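Appendix C reproduces, verbatim, an entry submitted by the partner laboratory led by Prof. M.T., so that reviewers can inspect both the input and the predicted structure.
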Amino acid sequence: MERKTDAESREPERQPKLENQLCFPLYACARKIVNLYTPYLRKSGITYTQYLVLMVLWEQDGIPVGDLCRRLYLDCGTMTPLLKNLEKAGFLSRSRSREDERVVRVQLTERGKAMRSAIGDIPSCVGQSVPLNAAEAGELYRLLYKILNAEPGR
């Protein structure tokens, strides 16, 4: 019988374990939070990602699609169908910039603007279901944005 080397005998220790992966609790928590939003948003006929698009537009209406992608950390291939569906539902419109035809701007319609007051209390409703106090929530927020804003490869 062949004897295993030290490296071979330690091999199972080097195998990734779910409980050692930072990505897993981030992923699972994100899903849990989205699931908390879903029943509220379903009543309004929008998805969580569509809600995020509307939130950005409530802050800054008329922005270019590229800026919207950057704000939401989404690529254009993901953003285009979102915008198309929101436009079809009457929440926004898209138009080419007069200054540069390559730039598409996104504007809220009256229905999109009205949605803000219709679903504005959702974050506080969801927040009541998250077991963090204000200091813990603030620290989590800070750490998550530290990860999001880090340079790739750091």
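The first strand starts at residue 63 and ends at 64. Additional entries are available on request from the coordinating office.
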